[in-house]
Amino acid sequence: MREVWNQHSPPAATIFPSLLSLRGYGLLIDNPQKPRWDLGRTDPSTFFYHAQGGGLQYYVLYGPDLQRLLRTFMELTGFPPLPPRWAFGLLQSRCGYRNRQELETIARTFRAKGLPCDALILDVFWF
């Protein structure tokens, strides 16, 4: 038996007790209670799910391939929002920038040299 639950403190708001197989099938259990799973660990021929409270409502999904399985899963649960356009661009990162002037100098240098750059990642020193 193995507990599979969010160990973060505080817990994340979204938990999807689900399984997706590369063989094209999936399982989504619609119960927000803390679950215990046994996926063949105790007995290789046994699948076990238990939650303290809540009803047992589940969805069995079929792909037949992983791409279509994921699409079916998202049609049921909702599609994630697209990140902003700049997140798909070229990002510049290095160990850190010590101040705003240094950061702006780097940005101007990229523009002056015609180098593509959609975002500068502030790192290390900005913690």
From the alpha carbons, calculate the radius of gyration and give it in angstroms. 23 Å
> What would the principal axes of the Cα set say about the shape?
elongated
Largest sheet: 3 strands, antiparallel
Structure classification:
alpha+beta
The percentage of residues in β strands lies in: 15-25%
| Strand line-up in the sheet with most strands | 1-4-5
Q: What's the number of helices? A: 2
Low-confidence stretches: none
Total tally of structural domains: 2
The sequence of SSEs as H and E is EEEEEEHEHE
Number of separate strands: 8
> What number is the mean pLDDT?
83
N-to-C CA distance:
40 Å
Percent of residues in helices comes to 10-25%
Please give a quick description of this structure:
By secondary structure, the protein is an alpha+beta fold. It contains two helices and eight strands, in the order ββββββαβαβ.
Task: Note down, in words, how this protein is organized.
The protein has 127 residues and is α+β, with helices and mostly antiparallel strands. It has 2 domains: 2-77, no CATH class; 85-126, no CATH class. It is 20% helix and 23% strand. It has 2 helices and 8 strands, in the order ββββββαβαβ. It has helices at residues 66-77, 100-112; strands at 2-3, 18-20, 25-29, 35-39, 47-51, 58-62, 91-92, 119-120. The strands form 3 sheets. A 3-stranded antiparallel sheet has the order 1-4-5, with no helix packed on it. A hairpin with a 4-residue loop joins β2 (18-20) and β3. The longest helix has 13 residues, at 100-112. The radius of gyration is 23 Å and the shape is elongated. The two termini are 40 Å apart. The model has no long low-confidence stretch (mean pLDDT 83).
